[in-house]
């Protein structure tokens, strides 16, 4: 991978994390772009990379073979589309875009490009998921029937005034920020079956309160009166699939319950539980040997395996070899985006939503 040159657009914490992963895998961080002077200066000093104020300048750098996009959601589309039109490979952080329409345009651009686009759903590469995949491939769980997906913070609303709480920049709140991880992982676990119906409700309960208890100091400079926002801070949803499998979702930046990232998979022969992005997995079985009994098996994975590191390795391999990736594909990300869009529509209308959509079918035909 030493000949692969990576340019990173968005030089905050996520951009720096990807840059370190790129170096660990032996590729070259050759360029970075950000509108903030201090971020460019820090990034250039740490990684020895050329820096640009605009992504257009970075895309014109001949040393750049692929681009990692870690900007606010609204800017994913223009950067990813421009990179793909230039024939470059792209890794865009989750979600694919701030709206379904924007996500469709990125998918359309990839279908017409020589470049590939992967989407940053790193939790499917964590040790817990890798172990689950192995035992699922062996048939240990039988037919998978249901996933309970939780990504719940007791108090964890990003500070008002940040782009996370600006619907124009983020596109949504807790659902689009952290719920997207749980939805992707659930669909991935089930093998991305066809989704037929989605129902859900989103709530804005805490973000507009002048007195908001934030014991862990998750959000800086809390002032709801000065910086109101119109995004969701919790979501409950239910997803039906054509093969009969289902997903229940709880996602929240803030809610009056214990925090939870539990992920429970139910199968006809056995079940599994783990925390999203963790290294441990419990297989839940029963038996009749000797007497009827429960048989729970605890597995502890290699802690050096992290989702981000493994995901970036897969991306760099695709860039280096030119082989289409088999994971984190834009087709999968578009399905996730459609589910999120359906949850928001269901919440607005008070009715379950179907996912049949001619525009998506046209894009899928191009991708196929």
UniProtKB/TrEMBL annotation:
Pfam assignment, any one: GFO_IDH_MocA_C3
Gene3D superfamilies for this protein: Dihydrodipicolinate Reductase, domain 2, NAD(P)-binding Rossmann-like Domain
Ranges for domain GFO/IDH/MocA-like oxidoreductase: 137-271
Keywords: Oxidoreductase
Sequence ranges assigned to domain Gfo/Idh/MocA-like oxidoreductase N-terminal in this UniProt record: 5-121
GO molecular function: nucleotide binding; oxidoreductase activity
Superkingdom of the organism of origin: Archaea
Protein name, UniProt field: Predicted dehydrogenase
Organism: Halostagnicola kamekurae
């Amino acid at each position: 991978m030493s000949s692969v040159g990576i340019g990173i657009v968005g030089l905050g914490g996520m951009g720096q994390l990807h840059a370190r992963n790129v170096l660990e895998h032996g590729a070259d961080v050759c360029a970075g772009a950000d509108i903030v002077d201090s971020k460019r200066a820090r990034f250039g000093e740490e990684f020895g990379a050329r820096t640009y104020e605009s992504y257009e300048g970075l895309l014109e750098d001949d040393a750049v073979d692929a681009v990692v996009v870690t900007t606010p959601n609204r800017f994913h589309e223009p950067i990813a589309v421009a990179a793909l039109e230039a024939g470059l490979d792209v890794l865009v952080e989750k979600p694919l875009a701030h709206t379904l329409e924007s996500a469709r345009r990125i998918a359309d651009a990839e279908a017409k490009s020589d470049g590939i686009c992967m989407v940053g759903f790193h939790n499917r590469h964590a040790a817990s998921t890798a172990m689950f995949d192995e035992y699922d491939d062996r048939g240990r769980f039988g037919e998978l029937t249901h996933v309970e997906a939780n990504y719940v913070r007791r108090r964890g609303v990003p500070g008002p005034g940040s782009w996370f709480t600006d619907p124009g920049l983020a596109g949504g709140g807790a659902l689009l920020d952290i719920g997207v991880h749980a939805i992707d992982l659930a669909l991935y676990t089930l093998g991305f079956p066809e989704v037929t119906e989605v129902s859900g409700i989103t709530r804005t309960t805490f973000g507009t309160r002048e007195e908001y208890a934030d014991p862990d100091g998750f959000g800086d400079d809390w002032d709801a009166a000065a910086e109101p926002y119109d995004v969701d801070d919790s979501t409950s949803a239910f997803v039906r699939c054509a093969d009969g499998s289902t997903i229940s979702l709880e996602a929240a930046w803030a809610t009056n319950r214990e925090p939870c990232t539990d992920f429970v998979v139910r199968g006809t022969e056995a079940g599994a539980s783990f925390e999203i992005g963790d290294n441990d997995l419990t297989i839940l079985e029963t038996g009749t040997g000797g007497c009827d009994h429960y048989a729970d098996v605890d597995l502890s994975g290699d802690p050096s395996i992290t989702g981000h590191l493994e995901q970036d390795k897969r991306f760099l391999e695709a860039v280096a070899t030119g082989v289409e990736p088999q994971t984190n594909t834009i087709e999968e990300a578009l399905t996730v985006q459609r589910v999120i869009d359906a949850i928001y529509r269901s919440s607005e209308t008070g009715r379950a939503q179907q996912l049949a959509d001619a525009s998506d079918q046209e894009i899928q035909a191009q991708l196929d």
